[in-house]
Design brief:
334 residues, four-stranded mixed beta sheet, 12 helices, alpha+beta
Length: 334
């Protein structure tokens, strides 16, 4: 028996390793929510034809990693810990035409269809936590004109984010992405990151480094007033934002390495919560090797290994990225 780790849940998976190192699951049991039918594997209305599914089927069982690829997932297997983690794969690639939907804390992004949405990713391990009251002010000022700010904390514990949410006295949807679901869908590699979504659910400004105050401008070089003015133009002056072609040009679609890094990170979080610190560290190192630029993983998960995300480990990470010419913040033209 292995433990399967997906976004928001971990469960037992009836599977074994064969002599080639493949993880084989029982063919008569559901796998990733799909069930074997006479004509193929099905989940709700969707079906994977038997001819395609055959690529993952062996006499000894279903090759879990191969099957995951067929249904748009990436699998990372740890034989020693008897665990496998899954992350979204190419089938869920981010696109300009429709913003990926998600539900956190009982709020679905699609519930806001018909309104403009400023999707604001932040975290308690980032100085951008001090911007939350200012984002609330922007929400309050522009809510009557059709804007909803939705803030999403990338904290792995809701308890870390809640004090900052309560202090900001928010009235906008303030969500906590403890399992990295929304961050994965929107390929958020650092915070603060803001995405604009129009009334029809289309992305009109993709992942943009924006702040709502100038508290750390000397460090990040970001102009909060410029982003505020752009937001007001979009809401009040009906500025359409970027065209679909421009969105596609700037959209940061996750690479295969980034997707695999997220699976390693998901497994690391589960292992850390299970008290398996050494194994968690190993998967964090794998994630860092695959996506060294992903600050949301590397800084956001420092606490798992006892490192201070505001201390020496973070500044060492900054120095490493700067020496490598990797931008820490990635603002779009305003």
């Amino acid at each position: 028996m292995f433990t399967a780790v997906e976004a928001g849940r971990a469960y037992g998976l009836d599977a074994r390793l064969d002599d080639r190192g493949r993880l084989l699951a029982a063919p008569d049991r559901p796998l990733l929510g799909w069930e074997r039918k006479p004509h193929g594997w099905c989940r709700e209305e969707a079906c994977l034809p038997a001819a395609r599914a055959a690529a993952a089927e062996t006499p000894g069982g279903v090759d879990v990693a191969a099957f995951a690829g067929l249904v748009g997932k990436v699998a990372v297997i740890d034989p020693d810990e008897r665990a496998v983690a899954f992350a979204e794969g190419a089938a869920q690639a981010l696109g300009a035409d429709e913003a990926p939907d998600f539900t956190l804390d009982g709020v679905a992004l699609s519930d806001l269809r018909g309104r403009k949405v400023a999707l604001v990713f932040w975290a308690s391990w980032c100085g951008c936590r001090y911007d939350l009251p200012a984002w609330q002010e922007r929400h309050a000022a522009l809510e009557g004109d059709g804007l909803t700010v939705v803030s999403v904390a990338l904290d792995r514990s809701a308890a870390d984010a809640r004090p900052w949410i309560e202090e900001a006295k928010v009235t906008h949807p303030a969500l906590v992405d403890a399992e990295g679901v929304a961050a994965e869908l929107y390929n958020v590699i650092n915070v603060p990151t803001v995405v604009w979504i129009d009334e029809e659910g289309r992305i009109v400004r993709p992942q943009d480094s924006q702040t709502a105050t100038d508290l750390f401008r000397s460090m990040n070089g970001l102009d909060s007033e410029a982003s505020h003015a752009a937001l007001r133009r979009w809401v009040l002056d009906r500025d359409p934002g970027l065209t679909a072609a421009e969105v596609r040009e700037h959209l940061r679609v996750p690479t295969a390495e980034e997707r695999r890094a997220r699976a390693h990170a998901r497994l690391a979080v589960w292992l850390a919560r299970e008290g398996r610190a050494a194994a968690a560290r190993r998967h964090l190192d794998e994630a860092a090797a695959l996506a060294p630029h992903d600050v949301a993983i590397r800084r956001g998960l420092m606490a798992l290994t006892g490192e201070d995300p505001f201390g020496d480990a973070y500044f060492a990470l900054r120095d490493e990225l700067e020496r490598s010419g990797v931008p820490i913040y990635r603002p779009l033209p305003l």
